[in-house]
């Protein structure tokens, strides 16, 4: 625990926001920071949760513990709707209270003695959970970027220079590779060919890929896979984790899932799914049954699927507005097409925490400093499309005044 | 992971039940097995959850991520209602998705290098999470009882011979002591004097007590503390974990909490709460906001508190029926007064899995074999009061026919 650097990124930003609001009590702060959904959940979904809740007060409708792995109906809906024609069975889908919690459980399963690789930059949860489990050495400040790196972790640089995909011929073999696509924070969705390279690399090395597809519903077009299981051979090397958070506005409701295919084996031939099942039944008691009722309503009907897709489409339009704004300002900007995140270098050469602080000071807009996602994120800030259209437009106007 | 013996206890029992139902498709199986609530949740609670859910479809009512540590209002309600006059501050209460999940997070925080002590018998989650974290050596079969013990764990025998409280003068010092009171499975609630001994023992040894009070609402009378914080000095040595599961029928809804007092320090003087906060914010994203709305409704009004207390009182009457039945049969029986669990030795000298199997075969009643809770549980079965009165009465009639 002592090795963990500073606070966890998002609580740190919350504290900075609070301090700012104290300093400027009349400022109307707009958060394009933490990736938290803001728009109402379609009523077809919340009605299902309300109905389920009320039924818990009736003898017929009361249900206690469900299966730790989740309701059969929801597991089946995910297998059928999210993974059509990918050969995913309902028994391979484990319902969870969110992808972040699954990362913790997976890291608990992997234990202290594994080596891990992560994209750089990427969501900090993979590394931080690894540090808590004791997989790493101490952190050291990276001279070039000013960000910190933990000894023992393989950082796979994903930058504009390599089109946000690592040169795998230069990546050291590790036991586990965490790979997030569309990537948080860069917004880059790996192409089919890139994921094929990743799967081949993992097969050659006997590595397990943990593929985080939490933003899959934001992908545009068919050339970029929404799941790693679109790639042949992935069932033998990959776990996929995903979430209703950014797909259905469930950040507070808490619902996600992990897929652990039966063909995924340890070197000794035993099934990884067997261990994960044991972790889920021992360290977890299943996601809230009310949340699961809501998740099923998102997937079970055409109406539900269309309703949640409309909310995602709205956030994607916000992302378009942000990208257009930064492009009009002549800034170096990425992401937004396949993700709710826009990745922008506002002041080349300056540290991202300084840029974050100056934007907040001058425009009362919250972003996230890129170095919070790893040393490779230094120099960038992440701007989130999760807000109402009005606020995004207002934030863009302020940013334009400040940056133009 | 390889060291874990067999399946986790409760899924194992589910499998045995399924096999039994296949063999006897017409039998009306009654489960007095897994401690799963069966009675409807008071409508004041489910209405609050339904209302909260529906509000998520409105711009005003939508809320995304809450604080990872839980809603302020719920933390405050727990501090005020559950811990009156015990000096617990709302900031010391961490809302969770259940006590089992908090055990996993605490074990993740403690890491591989701590030593632990547990009651024997007790809830298997403490040990199993410790095994997953790598705290133990391999399991060995205990010659005397036939149960298995893990090397490195200090088993504190809690048996009829010592009135279910360990002789602490013979207990080896460990870094952490898991202590469940009222104990699952024996139903024994430690007295004020016993908890004082435990706190003194931990203070002398510099140990942390993890006090599991999940069944506190079942305690009768004022001589047995419902919280370890009723004991002077406990704030400096104890974490308390608890749950809405057995208190409000939330086994499927998922809601619990942990209390980590500010005065609880590691040997180097740093606050344990700081580490736990980091684990909660890194490995968890908070309990479902809908469940939290329900939890608040259980505590915030006199009406809510009275409604959930009535459900608990109903289960306690069931426990009375069970105890009376076994006493009338001349069996050695414990528990039931301060807990929904009755602990009974039906056939002295016989193994508890055999007793479990015979009861199931002859009466179609599910119990839990005592050895599932540790080697000290061998010879007993746990009988749960979680069912409708009708079914408990019917089960007692069948058990009487079989045993008389």
From TrEMBL, chains A, B:
It comes from the Eukaryota. Its cofactor is pyridoxal 5'-phosphate. Residues 28-399 form the Aminotransferase class I/classII large domain. One of its GO terms (molecular function) is pyridoxal phosphate binding. GO terms for biological process: systemic acquired resistance, salicylic acid mediated signaling pathway. Keywords: Aminotransferase, Pyridoxal phosphate, Transferase. CDD domains: AAT_like. This is Aminotransferase class I/classII large domain-containing protein. It comes from Aegilops tauschii subsp. strangulata (Goatgrass).
